[in-house]
Model the fold of this input.
Amino acid sequence: MKLPPGVTSKDFADALKQLEGAVGKSWVFSSDEDVALYRDAYSPFWGEPEERVASAAVAPDGVEQVQKVVKIANTYKIPIYPISTGKNLGYGGSAPNLSGSLVLDLKRMNRILDVNPRNHSALVEPGVSYFDLYRYIQEKGYKLWIDVPDPGWGSPIGNSLDHGGGYLQPMYRNHFDSHCGMEVVLPNGELLRTGMGALPDAQTWQQYKFGFGPWIDGMFSQSNLGVVTKMGFWLMPEPDAYLTGTVTVPKYGDLIPLVDILTFLENSGVSNAMPGLGSPLLGGFMMPPPAPEVTALLQKTGGDISSPDLQKYAQDKSVPYWSCTVKFYGPVKGIQAHWEYAKEKFSAIPGAKFQDGEFYKLPLTPEQFKQVHKPEFGIPSLETFSIGARSAINPNPSAGHIWFSPIIPRTGEAVLEANKVFSKAAKDFGLPVLSFSLPSTYWMRAFIFIFGFPITHDVATNKKNRESFKKLIQIAAEHGWGEYRTAPAFQDAVMETYSFNNHALRRFHETIKDAVDPNGIISAGRYGIWPKHLRGTKA
Amino acid sequence: MSKLVAILLAALASQAYAADTVIAKGKQVYEYWCLTCHGPELPGTMALEAKYKGSKPALLAERTDLLPPITKTFVRKGVSVMPFFRKTEISDADLDAIAAYLARNTSAK
Done:
């Protein structure tokens, strides 16, 4: 058994006894076999001495048990690492930042405490998964959609605290933005409720976010200042219908006005479902592959997507350089009018052409249900794993993946520049050269690139990928692009890049950490925030 | 003698009932935890289709060769992009039940 740093085996054994008293013997896991289940299945350090592993795990069944665990951890100065459903794969899974931490597994706290079908909200515990909440709503017959990330087995609480996103209307798509009120066990064991929850007997905990005074909810996201035990979320009323339409534009430079018009439509609320950018010429994710002539031209020019030859090919063959699929939820007449308005706006680009896409009156029929990308309809799914799992086109799957995911400006110019920068970096590092990539549109106001790095069980390959990953973080930062979220293995490296004014932000985090959690027991090192006694030894 | 036979029959019936109960529970737990990836046309099923190329059913629930230790190994060790599952997710008792359900058509139990 790995011991928590600085804790004697006797103290740890005593603490485990007390934990058994607090939660029941069967919910304290300390055998090697059980603790191994808390490894990060997609760890980029898999099987290496640096792999972050737990010492033991404890699984409380309620907030009072969480408070007891936190108090015991303080007594023995044992670092604890809360997880919700433990399915944050690609961003750390269920393993702690600091090896030897005691994992606080909240999966047993899986109660759906309230769903309000009239004002469209929910209040849940951390162990509730998106599947659980969806099934509950279906059983009740409520016309409510939940905004789900692609893998639906995660926790609404865990996902939102880690700044995850989904696919519905922008006000729900950012999962932390769509939360309303939380309950937190503080590092000293005290219970805190935020927003209107601070008002005893409040009737509006899930209705008004801010309560009174400073709004502190953000301090518990991507953070280590408490254990979130309840959280409210706003849900989307099921719309009448869903409509998509695609605009294509002919020229290389058209990406710039295309993005600007899309941004106008989204920021105006006209396009209110997650749009998708594509390139009929270049192919790529979710697009047909490029013509062999295009592939040959790209090879000839070292991947230069702006080469005169390629532009001439696109013009001669009338293959559009870019496409944008805009999507709409709402009443039938309204979304049809919004699509007409979008076409008017995109018509400012000479040569723009339009194609009507999907149209569904909701709810979906069983046949439609099978065909659609489920998260765009508030339906949790694991279908996204078909990308990485074994298949006819992927006969030798990896053991997992991690995501490199920088935020870039929402402009066509930034998309083109980022591609040049990351393609060059990939060549320099000997990685498979990235084909041209278009960003994802999860967030309002900014774009995000999401590049997958495979995880293997080969130490040399993982080492090479880790080094490339760290260099990409640095290169992105040099261009003003920062990671929005990352696995524990890279959290120090990313936090290091958020360095304005001699790391004023990190120093502020540390000041708060020292005040709120003087023993440094909660999630030491999470998002690059270390307790005082470990600071400087890990980063 | 007839009393002894009756006791034996009752014991056998009781065992069969218990086995049926475990299998029914296993089906329920399997559908909760596994079917979201191992249902028709889902990634787990497609992965097994690519692996066995028709020599075995791609749907786990249709397999006739899944001895309980095999099921338990995959759930607790994972394979490829399928992670392992903790005991707070699938308890040992639930895993026994899933394994019994998937072994219900396996002759060499």
About this structure: The mean pLDDT of chain A is 95.
